């Protein structure tokens, strides 16, 4: 399997969900079962789990693994997902996977429910967001990778018996990573919408963390007064000022996951993507203002872990501006 296996998985889940339109299991040639394809796609994602596995874990041959992840940095980074066929945990494609799975759970909830997979999809989302909450637990830090890909790729073994170093990479004031921070924010914001009706406390926790992570990478054009006014109900002014300063002084592309997950498209698409999900989750005008006044968009023919414009444009085509019946305009 290539390093882009996770991207192919999310596409498969999306296609399978589409095929379940209206709760009816559509067969293209009379023999192919899209419900089975959907189930197996989600099981594939479950197979990639790292950490202490639950008793009802469907791939019975998988066992606990990576239980010391984060120890080298004195932080708990147990959990999350391995990437493709190796034993590295990359934050950038992992967060994109969770965002895309949450998107499916929001827009195809009834279809997933009819297929008997809604609970499994939600469990898959939570498996990722639980890890992101750990990865973003320290102020002005986001842990973005566990494992040494060079050494890991020299020894293809089951994660249960791996002996390769579990090195940890992070972004902070000295090593910014706008793309990864924005995608992680999008993942938690979209997931908060998934759990809003069933676990309000968890949903709010995800949304508040998504706001914090997003402030690490909001463009410096936002005035301190504007940010203070909006976030006064959620954060202290001192905390807000520190986050704004971090965004202003430490914005940039993170190359630590290269050559495996380099950001070729830059960070403007992730900023737009994160702001879109935060607006959908909160309906706060600060995010819509960024989208309509500051965001940079583009015409592209691809939607992937690295390029999010098309996804944001689809979401925004369904969002109307206040006092206006037309969708958000990104043509500026």
TrEMBL record:
<comment type="similarity">
    <text>Belongs to the glycosyl hydrolase 9 (cellulase E) family.</text>
</comment>
<dbReference type="InterPro" id="IPR008928">
    <property type="entry name" value="6-hairpin_glycosidase_sf"/>
</dbReference>
<keyword id="KW-0326">Glycosidase</keyword>
<dbReference type="InterPro" id="IPR001701">
    <property type="entry name" value="Glyco_hydro_9"/>
</dbReference>
<dbReference type="InterPro" id="IPR012341">
    <property type="entry name" value="6hp_glycosidase-like_sf"/>
</dbReference>
<keyword id="KW-0119">Carbohydrate metabolism</keyword>
<feature type="domain" description="Glycoside hydrolase family 9">
    <location>
        <begin position="34"/>
        <end position="320"/>
    </location>
</feature>
<dbReference type="Pfam" id="PF00759">
    <property type="entry name" value="Glyco_hydro_9"/>
</dbReference>
<keyword id="KW-0136">Cellulose degradation</keyword>
<dbReference type="GO" id="GO:0030245">
    <property type="term" value="P:cellulose catabolic process"/>
</dbReference>
<keyword id="KW-0378">Hydrolase</keyword>
<keyword id="KW-0624">Polysaccharide degradation</keyword>
<dbReference type="GO" id="GO:0008810">
    <property type="term" value="F:cellulase activity"/>
</dbReference>
<protein>
    <recommendedName>
        <fullName>cellulase</fullName>
        <ecNumber>3.2.1.4</ecNumber>
    </recommendedName>
</protein>
